[in-house]
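Known limitations

Structure tokens in this collection are predictions and should be treated as such. Users comparing against experimental data should check residue numbering before alignment. To illustrate the layout, the record for Acetoin utilization protein AcuC is reproduced below. The input appears on top and the generated tokens appear beneath it.
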Amino acid sequence: MKPARFFFSEKLLEYDMGPGHPLKPIRLEMTYALLESYGLFQEALEKVEPELANDEEVCLSHSAEYLDVLRRLERGESVSDVYRYGLNTPDNPLFPRIYTASMRYTGASIGAAQAVIDAKLHEDQPVAFNLSGGLHHAHYSRASGFCVLNDCAVGIRRLLRGFSRVAYVDIDVHHGDGVQESFYRDPNVLTISIHESGKTLFPGTGFPEEIGEGAGLGTSVNIPLAPNTPDEVWLWAWREVAIPILEAYHPEAIFLQMGTDAHAYDPLAHVCLSAQGWLEAVKDVKAFGKPIVAVGGGGYNLTTVPRMWTLAVATLVGKEIADATPQSYAYHKSIPQLTDPIAPAVSDAERQAAWAFAKRTVQQVKNLLFPYYGLGKSSVN
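Generated tokens:
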């Protein structure tokens, strides 16, 4: 099997919102170094320099006006009412090369999608990676939640050039609102998002009743969960809803958003997963045997993001790697192993509340969506 294409360049680190911002570009560098220390670029991965996205393709998912605003801001021009575009806010501050940096990570997702299309004729399950991508909150004419351009939406539209039906699977702790919005009326794209409830976390959306509209009715799947949800509850909800709908939809390819911020140690959310619990969902996606474009996403604890992405990449390329990180890894002392040696602490009361919330969510999703797929609405006990 040919090495999987892994889109990376130090220029991707230019997507930098400043030293006080939670989104740290160094997480990409730390992950690349960890993958390299395991020797994965010697046989399993091929590093590819991403190209900039072009305006024509990006404008299938964003307005030309919005792109022009980004270009003008990069040139240092004044833009009146810039807040209307979600910019110059604490979440989405202005920064040097805002247009170029955004077009580069978006171009990397386009490249990964095209790599999978090109490989489908001679590989059973091609996979390609862009860990700088997964910026799922950006809207048609507005930045949001650290995301300037929605590379997921752009990448999915490139995938649709080679595949007739695509599933977008989002395991980030935040609802993939921008992607859902982009394909809400499209029957050729199934969007699945499992996340902390919008009642307690940004962006305040992603409820079970958001099931699509028009021709896309039934193709938007949301699995909101409670704060303090542990592995077993999260995985139960995921497997009760996401897996059967994915099977019934029969996608030809999967676009996997691998945000790591559902981990218990992430500072911006309240779900309590372990690295290995989260990884089970990645394994489930791989088990479908479909071509996969795998992108990054949220993740704000620098001791969890590199190891979780490394686990995911190794899993998706079918490589067994040691749990102990190599001594040669520059961050070995702060990240001595990939998995969590101790399960994150969740009290009995928190666990019971998480189960009750998950059961309500799962029953609601089954009632709303299973009829579209000929699936039985079994009651949840």
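For this record: The longest helix spans residues 98-119. The longest strand covers residues 189-196. Please report discrepancies through the issue tracker.
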